[in-house]
């Protein structure tokens, strides 16, 4: 991660708040079951609480939990995003 992003950045969802590094809960639905992992590093908006998780962290978490299971079966919860592409609209 570059130094500029590690200090925070404008929220891509609400465009008002600032996303800063902190720990939060990662929550997803997999085959109808809720997966909740506390204390995961993310960038969280101070206004809308949008959470962006590092793709490498998500990959490591997936491998630890599900091994070779296809990631297409994951459903996002609470508008969390899996990558750093923006401009798709908000939930």
Structure, briefly:
The protein is an alpha+beta fold and 91 residues long.
General description of the model:
With 91 residues, the chain is an alpha+beta fold. The chain has one domain (9-76): Ubiquitin-like (UB roll) (Roll), CATH 3.10.20. The chain is built from two helices and five strands, in the order H-E-E-E-E-H-E. Strands 1, 2, 3, 4 and 5 form a five-stranded antiparallel sheet that branches. Strand 1 and strand 2 (18-30) form a beta hairpin. The longest helix has 12 residues, at 55-66.
Class from helix and strand fractions = alpha+beta
CATH architecture annotation name: Roll
Anisotropy-based shape = elongated
Mean pLDDT level: 78
Total number of beta strands: 5
Strand content: 35-45%
Based on CA atoms alone, the radius of gyration comes out at 13 Å
Order of helices and strands: HEEEEHE
Helix content: 10-25%
User: Span between N and C termini?
Assistant: 26 Å
Secondary structure layout plus pairing:
Elements: H1 3-6, E1 9-10, E2 18-30, E3 33-45, E4 51-53, H2 55-66, E5 74-76
Antiparallel strand pairs: 1-2, 2-3, 2-5, 3-4
Keywords:
Ubiquitin-like (UB roll), five-stranded antiparallel sheet, alpha+beta, 2 helices, disordered C terminus, elongated, 91 residues, 5 strands
């Amino acid at each position: 991660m570059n130094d500029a992003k590690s200090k925070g950045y404008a929220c891509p969802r609400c465009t008002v708040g600032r996303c800063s590094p902190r720990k939060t809960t990662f929550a997803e639905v997999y085959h109808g079951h809720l997966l909740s992992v506390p204390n995961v590093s993310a960038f969280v908006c101070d206004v809308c609480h949008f959470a962006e998780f590092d793709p490498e962290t998500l990959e490591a978490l997936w491998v630890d939990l599900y091994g070779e299971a296809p990631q297409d079966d994951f459903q996002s919860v609470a508008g969390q995003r899996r990558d750093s592409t923006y401009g798709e609209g908000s939930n």
